[in-house]
């Protein structure tokens, strides 16, 4: 074989390694056997530091919405097994993401309290059944990124072969038909040398039309997979402004914004990807929400494989809505007393911006929990390949929907030294509210998430 032939052979092998492997009946037969109903390994690891999957999380006592969830969690009295800090970070480096190591080494006083691992994130039975029924049908379209033929609500690719399949498992995570933040905060730490943070108060509803009981496809609801309504209440300069967004399986996001000064709704066609979110001092590129959100079409997603990583998990402390925001927000970091890390198996995927496109962070690494398909950690790299932003989602069980969700998130800019504590109900006096299938609230219908409706309900 000559040199040119060798290059061709390597190119073919490389293309095959990134090609999608169709799921087989043998894969489907593993669900509920050696794999959980959504594709995680049931067994623990060889060191017994990750236990086998157990029964779904349930509250103790008579918890109901409006009561602090943490008070009804059976592990609420646990203490950290150990704490990772600058003195011992190298000892645990094999189980840390690169961004976590950078945070510990760069941010003074940054620590990670590590607790025993509990694997109780599950899904309702009808979601598990749809996952099994649909795994041989779901596919990625010829454009390389759109989702087709999925059976929803369910995990489209419980035995993934490519990075884009893992991305769609994340985007199709079961959260009920809707999630409401009756009140929420986003905290942006002060500029270096400054003392005044940016504190934004808002309310939000998120709607998942495919999450009703039964079997639904990406072709339903004109291809809408998520609707978002977001309205500012503080500070005064932003109060009354609002946003509606419509996310689709195979086309660009629709964004409509109500400007109080103009008393008009404007369409914002470029309000996606790395466009800066309004009001956040250019610290918040839009697709950073919950580590990664929006269309995945501008990146090539490589499936690196599985790792064992300390990730934020069972973070019920992040829903202490009866606490003060100042209890959580320290000058350079979120209070470690509220952060809980556990060792879990995660899927590692790497996104690289496609030729012909641009992005302020052209390389991304995401770590996705195998049990819940929730993104736990994300590292963003700049054009020189240096870690720029470190992002974490705080995963917690939400008992009313029988699944885990995200209680809050943190994004740290290693260059500016600032951090954002986002999507939190701490300090609001009101908990996150999840709506199970069958909810009749008119805010959880596709007609609510339109520019016309935004104009009708905006009054200031």
From TrEMBL:
Q: Which Pfam families match?
A: DUF1329
Q: What is this protein called?
A: PF07044 family protein
Name the UniProt key words of this record, in alphabetical order.
Signal
Q: Which InterPro entries match?
A: DUF1329 (IPR010752)
Tell me what organism the protein belongs to: Caballeronia choica
Region (Disordered), start-end ranges: 31-51
Signal peptide limits: 1-22
């Amino acid at each position: 074989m000559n040199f040119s032939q060798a290059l061709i052979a390597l190119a073919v092998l490389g293309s095959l390694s990134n090609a999608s492997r169709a799921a087989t009946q043998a894969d489907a037969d593993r669900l509920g056997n050696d794999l959980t109903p959504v594709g995680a390994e049931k067994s623990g690891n060889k060191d017994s530091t990750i236990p086998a999957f157990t029964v779904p999380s349930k509250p103790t006592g008579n918890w109901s919405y409006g009561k602090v969830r943490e008070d009804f969690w059976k592990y609420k009295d646990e203490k950290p097994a150990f704490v990772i800090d600058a003195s011992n970070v190298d000892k645990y480096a094999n189980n840390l993401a690169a961004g976590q190591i950078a945070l510990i080494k760069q941010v003074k006083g940054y620590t990670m309290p590590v607790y025993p691992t509990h694997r109780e994130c599950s899904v309702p039975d009808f979601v598990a059944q749809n996952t099994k029924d649909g795994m041989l049908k779901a596919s990625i379209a010829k454009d390389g990124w759109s989702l087709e033929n999925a059976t929803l609500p369910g995990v489209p690719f419980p035995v993934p072969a490519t990075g884009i399949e893992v991305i769609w498992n994340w985007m199709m995570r079961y959260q009920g038909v809707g999630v409401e933040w009756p009140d929420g905060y986003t905290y942006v730490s002060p500029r270096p040398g400054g003392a005044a943070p940016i504190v934004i108060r808002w309310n939000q509803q998120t709607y998942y039309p495919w999450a009703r009981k039964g079997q639904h496809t990406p072709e339903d609801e004109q291809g809408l997979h998520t609707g978002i309504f977001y309205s500012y209440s503080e500070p005064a300069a932003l109060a009354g402004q609002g946003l509606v967004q419509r996310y689709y399986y195979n086309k660009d996001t629709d964004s409509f914004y109500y400007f109080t000064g103009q008393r008009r709704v404007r369409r914002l066609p470029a309000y996606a990807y790395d466009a800066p979110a309004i009001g956040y001092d250019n610290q918040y590129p839009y697709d950073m929400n919950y580590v990664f959100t929006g269309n995945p079409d501008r990146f090539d997603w490589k499936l690196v494989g599985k790792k064992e990583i300390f990730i934020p998990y069972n973070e019920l402390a992040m829903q202490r809505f009866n606490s003060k925001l100042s209890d959580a927000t320290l000058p350079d970091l979120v209070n470690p007393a509220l952060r809980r890390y556990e060792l879990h198996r995660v899927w590692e995927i790497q996104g690289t911006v496609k030729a012909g496109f641009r992005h302020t962070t052209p390389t991304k690494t995401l770590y996705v929990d195998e049990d819940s398909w929730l993104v736990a950690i994300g590292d963003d790299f700049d054009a020189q390949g240096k870690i720029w932003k470190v992002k974490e989602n705080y995963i917690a069980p939400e008992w009313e929907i029988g699944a885990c969700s995200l209680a809050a998130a943190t994004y740290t800019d290693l260059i500016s030294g600032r951090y954002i504590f986002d999507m939190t109900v701490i300090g609001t006096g009101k908990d996150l509210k999840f709506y199970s299938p069958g909810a009749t609230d008119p805010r959880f219908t596709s007609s609510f998430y339109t520019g016309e409706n935004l104009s009708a309900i905006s009054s200031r």
